[in-house]
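Prompt: I keep going back and forth on a fold encoding question. Comparing notes only helps if you start from a blank page. Show me how you would write down a chain together with its backbone fold. Please set it down just below, with no commentary around it:
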Amino acid sequence: MDRNSFIGIALLVLLVIGYISYNNYSQTKYAEQKRADSVARAKANPPKPALPVAKDTAAKQAEAAINDSIRASMPPAYNGQEQSVMLENNDISLSFNTKGAHPQAALLKKYKTYEKQPLYFFNGKGNELSAMLPVNNGTTSTADLYFVATPTNAANGDKALDFSADLGNGKAVHIIYTLPTDGYMLHCDMKLTGMPVNSLNMTWQTSALHTEKDVTVERNNAQLYYNFTNKEHDYFSLIRKEKEALDKSAQWLGFRVQYFSTALIADNNSFNNATVSGNSKLADSGIVAISKNTFEVPVKDGNVSLRWFIGPNHYKTLKSYDLGLDEMVPLGYGVMFFVKYVNKWIIIPVFNVLSGFISNYGIIIILLTVFIRLILSFFTYKSYLSAAKMRVLKPELDELRAKLGDDQQKFGMEQMKLYRSAGVNPLGGCLPTLFQLPILFAMYYFFPSSIELRQQKFLWASDLSTYDNVISWSGNIPFVTSVLGNHISLFTILFTASSLFLALYNRNMTVQDPNNPLMKWMPYVFPFLLFGVFNKMAAALTFYYFCSNMISIAQQFVIQKYIINEKAIHAQIQENKNKPATPSKWAARLEEMQKAQQERAKQVPRKK
C-alpha cells in the first residue's frame, strides 16, 4: 500500500470513526439530560397525597344503580365488556380487544427473542389505532367504543374479523381486519354509517418490545420513516429527534427497531397533516421505543381502506410489496447513501444465492468474502503494481532528496518530472483503493441490518447478528466501559490482530516519506482505534473484515511473489525514460501550480 492509498483509506476511516464517536457522544449527552430533566420534574411536582373519600355503603349502592341505569339507556357501543379475539395465519398471530377494535398484541410465529421466548413485536395497552368519529361534536374515539366481533372466512381462504359498533340514531361503524393465509400484511377497512364526513383524524401508537441481546443497540436503531405520495421518503432516529410535522401528504408511515418493523399504508389514499413522533428514552428496559403518529385520512363514500405491515425488517419481504417499504432496511444512508445501491444490486443477490443452498451462515460469509475479493482483485493488483513502481524509483528519489536538501518545492517539481519520464502515475495506488471503499462500507451497513443472521451460530458466536462476547463484566470501568462496553469480542480481536499484521507485512513494501513520521506509525495505530469502534458491532461484520484481511494478505503474497517482477518493471521504466514524455493534463496542471508557487516564493522579500 503506497502513501496515496494509505491517505485515502485513512481519511475515510477517520470519517467513520468520527461519525460513530459523535453518535455515541450525542446519545450519552441526551440520556444524561433526559435523566436530569426527569429528576427536576419529580422534585418540582411531588406526588400529592390522596384525599380521603368518605361514602357510606348505601350512597355507593345508589351511585352504582344510577350508573347502571345510565349505561343501560345508552347505545350498545358505549356499554359493553372487553374481550380478546384472535386473528392469525401461518406467520403472525394478532390479539384484538373488543374495546377499541384494534390489535393489542402481535406474535411473530417464526421468530424467538434472544432469550428463546415467543417474540411479540408489541403487547399491551400502549398500542392503538383509533379514529375520531363525527359524534358528540367530534369527541368520540373508536378507542372508547365497545365492538361486537364476528369472525368470517373469505372464499380465497383469507380470515377476517368484522368489528361492529352501534352508536344509536342510525349511526354505526364497522372495522374489518383481513389476514391472508401467509405473510405479514393486515388489511383494515373502516365503514361509517349515518356519519357523513370527508375525513377522519386518526391516532396510531405502537410500543415495541425488547427482543434482542442489547436494548441499547435496539434503541440506537429505533427510527421513524415516512414515504410521501410523490415517492420521496425520509426518516429520523429517535436518539436524535422525537417529533416531525410532515409538510406533504404521505403514502405510508413506518416504525423500525433493530430487526422488526411496522408500517401503516394508505390504500389509494394519503395521510394528510401527519405528525410523527416517538420516544426511546424510557425507564422500562422491556420497551425499546414508543411511536405515536397522528394524521388526517380522507373518507370516500363512508369508507377508509388501510394496510398494516407488522413483521420482520427483511429486505426481500418488504420489497415484495412494491411500496418502498424496503427503505426501512438501513443499507446505507447519510454521507454513505450511495453504498445502498452496492448492497441492493450486488451484495444481497449474491448473499441470497449462497443462502439458497448453504445453511451455515459462517461459510456463506467466507464465500461472500472470497467473491468480493475476486471482484476487487484487478484493483488490488493495480494498487500493488503502483507500489512496486514506487519502490523501484525509491533510489532515484533518495538521490533527489539528498541533492535538493530541504527545498521541498524544488523536490516536488523534480519528483513529478521523474514520474512523468518513467510513465508512473502518482495516483496509481490511491485510485484503485478508492474504488474498493464502496464495498468496504457496503458491508459495514449490510451485516448489522441482515435479519437472516439473527440467532445464527458459528464457531463460538451464538448469534452472528450481535457481538460475540468471550469476556464480559458488570459495572462501570472508567474509560474502558465507555469505549468497549462491558465485554470484549473475540472476532474483533482477530480483526484487529490481522489488521496489525497486514500493516507490518506492508512495512517493507511501501515507500515511506522520511519527512512525515506520522505516516510511518499511523498504520499501527489504526487497528487499535478500530478495536474500540467494532467491539460493539455484529460478529458477522468483524468476522467478514477478519476474513477480508486474511485473503488480502494471501493475495498480496501471491501477487508480489509470483506475478509482479520488479526487475521487469525497472527495465520498463528505464525504457520509458527514453521515450518522449507526454504529460497528462493533471500532471501539467500540478507542475504549473508548483512553478507559480516557486515564483511567488522568490518574489517575497527576505528579512534582513
